[in-house]
Design a protein that fits this description.
Elements: H1 2-14, H2 23-40, H3 45-48, H4 54-58, H5 64-67, H6 77-98, H7 100-123, H8 133-146, E1 151-154, E2 158-161, H9 162-179, H10 186-198, H11 200-239, E3 260-262, E4 271-273
Antiparallel strand pairs: 1-2, 3-4
Helix pairs in contact: 2-6, 6-7, 6-8, 7-10, 8-9, 8-10, 9-10
């Protein structure tokens, strides 16, 4: 995947004008047109003329290689509108981040994989209904990898981070792979593979950065605590007392009946008496 990802990046760098700018706008317009056509065509005669059918494609109806991308994913107007909004929003964000060339390559590559899959299962005697639903949903994975902490308004009023939305989307994909009969359950896997190829470098960087940050923070906290503990023990031997409250200044030498504790939420090594262990401002440095 790493080599293929680099090859795609090199191609897009050398051909920056490749692809169609603002591609998701045309995808959304096509979906709306197909949805309206499906509503007016109660017998589904026209929509059947546009669906993916390998046998008819080989007979010359090549437009089906494109028109199946616009098949609506939901019959409910509300959910259909919500899905198109998110498709356009995320598609535009990916295009701005990657550039029109790479985003167009991503959509074209995923489309080609889906078409090849459709022909393979047809030749095996198990034709499946093809649409761009999983292709479009796979953009959520790419967006979550590029902008994991970005917040979006789910249903326009529920704030949620993209990495959470990406995990929810992944759970949906896993559910579809498990519950959908074979070979139709491979369609979500194709979308995931395509997303992984195009986001490989970003995903590798994100994971390695998080590991380094976690390792650095853990190491720093451990070293700082040991250093502060050694310093505290040295100070104790010089002062003549062992514990001293950071708030009231009372020591275990002056008040042997008091209990003293160290706060785990404070940065460093700070001691407090029993009266102030739960009611003090935490040290941050």
């Amino acid at each position: 995947m790493k080599a293929l990802n680099r090859a795609i990046d090199k191609f897009c760098y050398r051909h920056p004008r490749f692809g169609l700018p603002n591609l998701m706008l045309y995808i959304v317009i096509g979906n709306v047109a197909m949805y309206l056509l499906n509503m007016m065509d109660t017998t589904h005669t026209l929509t059947a003329f546009l669906m993916f059918d390998p046998q008819l494609i080989l007979r010359g109806q090549v437009w089906r290689l494109i028109t199946f991308l616009f098949m609506p994913s939901s019959g409910n107007v509300f959910f259909f509108a919500i899905s198109l909004y998110f498709y356009y929003f995320i598609g535009r964000a990916l295009e701005q981040q990657w550039g029109s060339a790479k985003f167009s390559c991503y959509y074209l590559f995923t489309t080609l994989l889906t078409i090849i899959f459709g022909f393979v299962v047809w030749l095996c005697g198990s034709p499946v209904f093809l649409s761009a639903t999983y292709m479009n949903l796979s953009m959520f994975f790419a967006f979550a990898i590029l902008y994991p902490d970005a917040r979006v308004l789910l249903f326009f009023f529920i704030p949620i981070k993209m990495k959470i939305l990406g995990l929810i989307n992944l759970a949906f994909y896993v559910f579809e792979i498990i519950t959908t009969p074979f070979p139709a359950n491979l369609l979500p896997a194709i979308a995931i593979v395509s997303c992984a190829i195009f986001c490989w470098s970003d995903l590798s960087y994100y994971l390695s950065r998080n590991r380094q940050m976690y390792s650095r923070q853990t190491s720093a906290q451990t070293l700082n605590f040991k250093k502060e503990a050694q310093k505290a023990r040295k100070d104790q031997s010089q002062r003549g007392y062992r514990h001293k409250c950071e708030v009231c200044g009372r020591t275990d030498t002056e008040y042997p009946q008091l209990e003293f504790r160290y706060c785990s939420r404070c940065a460093g090594y700070h001691c407090f008496c029993q009266d102030h262990i739960n009611c003090h401002e935490h040290f941050t440095q």
